[in-house]
């Protein structure tokens, strides 16, 4: 880890004094420090830290009264909304384990996750209930609570909104009524934060059966602090239940992107995703930020909110930024107060990066993480000088990263060599739920975890992601990494973003096929882009087919849906 210390961000502690506390102490701490500050703003509705803390206490009481006991799993099947945050902290206060279930999943996928995790309680949203309803008879779920977004609107303005609430069917509990009728008295639960689970989140399942990732309260608290204190600077002080900051002499809060209790953040990454739960909920509330929350991404609404709420922070995947900078309102939006834009899950193109940095005075940070490490492993230093294009930054506090031979885990590679990324740190998962064999494959006896991701490190300890191991193509026996090809295409001034997948070929293996989304108003044809990329690539890496499409398909989390592109690629050539 020494190799990255010379570039370590000024004022940021290399080792943190983590509180031995459950993850919901984040909310309790911030409610003590900023009780009347808005924690969440949603569709015009405002909720203070004190109110969020009290409402989650009520939810904890309600769940306990319904029979929830320590260690039992509670699924949340909803989009971002205030009720999500209330339910999340409430179930944790009741000793439950959070099982996020994406609203995008099919009935079969929902049924699998509910059964695999042994979920007994489900808190869902009326808009998505039909899928869950079909799955429930095939699961062990015994209690269902439904949320309606219509409850977020004040009675006076509700008639003007598009959403309306209809009575829930018999046997389903109404979230709002449940919280209203329950006292703010959470049960007294004795938690072992090092061992007791806070989350079981599932891998995407693009290869094989999805696996449940076990995250303890300790993992969750550690990674939330690693994230937060990277942006606030300083070290952790913990007294009387308050998670505060101790600073080096001369270090000022204004020298960092987060000034505790002062920032306004736009939140669109989904909380059912690991990065959303930690990067855009726990970490943000730990810093005392006000979260302006969206259930889905709309570039026009996003831009309007920046000026309306005087936003200072936002983030997501680059696929969200492209329609943002392309929107006709982007030019007239005042971004002079933006201090930070966080980017992750895919490389940001130089053109997009340049456009954003010219628009606001703050910094762009790229990050790398994976659910098996709770959320985050590396982040760019929070200065423009510390940012290195193509890199995902340095390991966060108390975290080590090394690159090894994919065929021989014991052999660490030299600086600049490409291999499999390994991680060691207190945020690593406890293991896979009910799957010790798979756990043993990735969690090594010496404390290291193999990630399945391919990368390299430079002489200063900056990490560069070459590709996901599962996305790697093999052409004539050579390894071809789609991310490298995408970065070459992204250099073309007409390209907004690119994605490369493989087309199966009996003779050659995987043929690289590229899909390109052009910047608005840009002109380029497929032959021109192919020639541009292939003139910059080794012969075995050359793109064999390229198709310009209107928009790359992405998930709610902003990740390119490569499975859809692979299906299309099989029909090309």
Strand tally: 29
CATH level-two architecture of the domain at 25-215: 3-Layer(aba) Sandwich
Low-confidence stretches: none
Shape: globular
How does the helix and strand content classify structurally? alpha/beta
Beta-strand portion reads 25-35%
- Give the strand order, joined by hyphens, for the main sheet: 4-3-5-6-7
CATH class of the domain at 25-215: Alpha Beta
Distance between the termini: 46 Å
Helix content: 25-40%
Mean pLDDT: 92
Radius of gyration: 23 Å
Q: Could you give a short account of the major beta sheet?
A: 5 strands, parallel
Task: Please work out how many helical segments DSSP would assign.
Answer: 15
Question: Which fold name fills CATH's third level, the topology of the domain at 25-215?
Answer: Rossmann fold
Notes on the protein architecture:
By secondary structure, the protein is α/β, with parallel strands linked by helices. Among the domains are: 25-215, Rossmann fold (3-Layer(aba) Sandwich); 474-569, ANL, C-terminal domain (GMP Synthetase, Chain A, domain 3, 2-Layer Sandwich), CATH 3.30.300. Helix content is 27%, strand content 25%. It has a 5-stranded parallel beta sheet with strand order 4-3-5-6-7. Strands 14-15-16-17-18 form a 5-stranded mixed beta sheet. Strand 27 (495-505) and strand 28 (509-518) form a beta hairpin. The protein is globular, with a radius of gyration of 23 Å. The model has no long low-confidence stretch (mean pLDDT 92).
């Amino acid at each position: 880890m020494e190799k990255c210390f010379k570039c370590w961000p000024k004022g940021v502690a290399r080792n943190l004094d983590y509180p031995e506390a459950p993850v919901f102490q984040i909310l309790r701490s911030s409610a003590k420090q900023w009780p009347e500050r808005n924690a969440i703003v949603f569709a015009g509705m405002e909720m203070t830290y004190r109110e969020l803390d009290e409402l989650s206490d009520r939810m904890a009481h309600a769940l306990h009264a319904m029979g929830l006991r320590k260690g039992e799993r509670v699924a949340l099947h909803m989009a971002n909304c205030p009720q999500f945050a209330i339910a999340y902290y409430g179930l944790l206060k009741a000793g439950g384990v959070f099982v996020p279930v994406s609203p995008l999943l099919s009935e079969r996928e929902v049924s699998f996750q509910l059964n695999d995790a042994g979920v007994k309680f489900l808190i869902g949203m009326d808009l998505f209930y039909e899928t869950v309803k079909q799955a429930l008879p095939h699961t062990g779920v015994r209690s269902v609570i439904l949320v309606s977004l219509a409850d977020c609107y004040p009675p006076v303005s509700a008639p003007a909104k598009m959403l309306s609430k209809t009575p829930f069917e018999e046997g389903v509990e109404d979230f709002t009524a449940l919280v209203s009728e329950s006292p703010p008295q959470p049960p007294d639960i004795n938690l072992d934060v090092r061992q007791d689970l806070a989350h079981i989140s599932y891998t995407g399942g693009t290869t094989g059966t999805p696996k449940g990732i076990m995250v303890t309260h300790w993992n969750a608290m550690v990674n939330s602090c690693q994230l937060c204190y990277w942006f606030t600077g300083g070290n952790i002080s913990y007294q009387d239940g308050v998670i505060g900051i101790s600073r080096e002499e001369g270090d000022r809060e204004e020298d960092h992107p987060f000034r505790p209790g002062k920032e306004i953040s736009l939140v669109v990454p989904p909380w059912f995703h690991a990065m959303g739960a930690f990067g855009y909920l726990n970490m943000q509330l730990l810093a005392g930020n006000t979260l302006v929350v969206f259930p889905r991404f709309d570039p026009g609404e996003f831009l309007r909110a920046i000026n309306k709420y005087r936003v200072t922070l936002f983030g997501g995947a680059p696929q969200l930024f492209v329609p943002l900078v392309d929107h006709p309102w982007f030019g007239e939006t005042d971004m002079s107060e933006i201090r930070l834009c966080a980017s992750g899950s895919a490389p940001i193109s130089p053109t997009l990066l340049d456009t954003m940095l010219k628009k606001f005075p703050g910094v762009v940070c790229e990050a790398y993480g994976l659910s098996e490490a709770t959320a985050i492993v590396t982040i760019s230093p929070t200065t423009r000088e510390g940012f290195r294009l193509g890199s995902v930054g340095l390991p966060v506090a108390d975290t080590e990263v090394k690159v090894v031979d994919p065929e021989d885990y014991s052999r660490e590679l030299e600086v600049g060599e490409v291999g499999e990324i390994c991680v060691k740190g207190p945020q690593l998962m406890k293991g896979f739920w009910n799957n010790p064999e798979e756990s043993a494959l990735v969690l090594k006896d010496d404390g290291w975890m193999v990630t399945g991701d391919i990368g390299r490190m430079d002489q200063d300890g900056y990490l560069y992601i070459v590709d996901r191991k599962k996305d790697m193509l093999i052409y004539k026996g050579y390894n071809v990494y789609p991310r490298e090809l995408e970065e070459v295409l992204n250099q073309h001034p007409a390209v907004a973003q690119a994605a490369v997948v493989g087309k199966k070929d009996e003779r050659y293996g995987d043929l690289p096929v590229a899909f390109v989304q052009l910047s608005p108003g840009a002109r380029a044809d497929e032959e021109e882009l192919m020639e541009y990329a292939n003139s910059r690539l080794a012969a075995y890496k050359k793109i064999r087919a390229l198709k310009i499409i209107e928009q790359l398909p992405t998930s709610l989390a902003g990740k390119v849906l490569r499975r859809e592109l692979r299906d299309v690629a099989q029909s090309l050539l």
